TrEMBL record:
<dbReference type="Pfam" id="PF03259">
    <property type="entry name" value="Robl_LC7"/>
</dbReference>
<feature type="domain" description="Roadblock/LAMTOR2">
    <location>
        <begin position="9"/>
        <end position="99"/>
    </location>
</feature>
<dbReference type="InterPro" id="IPR053141">
    <property type="entry name" value="Mycobact_SerProt_Inhib_Rv3364c"/>
</dbReference>
<protein>
    <recommendedName>
        <fullName>Roadblock/LAMTOR2 domain-containing protein</fullName>
    </recommendedName>
</protein>
<dbReference type="InterPro" id="IPR004942">
    <property type="entry name" value="Roadblock/LAMTOR2_dom"/>
</dbReference>
């Protein structure tokens, strides 16, 4: 597992403090490994990261059916009791957020986008083959 990078703490805290209702923030690699998290249980963050890898893969398959579509930018799922957000955050990296019903979806997606723009170069994960960085 990739160790959480210390400089992610303040970046993710800033998002958490800027939007009410956030339960957990996870930064993950495209292959579903947790890079960093803020809030929530570490085991839950690992499960979310693994599930997000499947979600971004599914979004990519759907995009293939839309002529001229680019990459997946944002997936939002409204569930009973809250929202799930998954945003492309750089080369081979994604930003996922779980939030309760007090979260305002427009504000959340805007704050996530701002975070990715400001620190996108830091939210990347090198490609791996057979568990090793290539």
């Amino acid at each position: 597992m990739i160790q959480q990078r210390a400089n992610f703490d303040w970046m993710l805290k800033q998002l958490n403090d800027g939007v009410p209702g956030i339960e957990m923030i996870v930064v993950l690699s495209a292959d579903g490994l947790r890079i960093a998290r803020y809030g929530g249980d570490p085991d839950a963050a690992d499960r979310v990261a693994a599930a997000c890898a499947g979600m971004q893969s599914l979004a990519g398959a759907i995009i293939q059916e839309i002529p001229g579509a680019g990459d997946m930018k944002l997936v939002v799922i409204e569930i009973d009791g809250g929202y799930f957000y998954l945003m492309n955050a750089g080369a081979n990296a994604y930003l996922a957020v779980l939030a309760d019903v007090t979260c305002e979806p427009g504000r959340m997606s805007g704050m996530m986008r701002d975070l990715v723009v400001r620190i996108g170069a830091h939210l990347t994960s090198p490609p791996r083959r057979n568990g090793q960085t290539v």
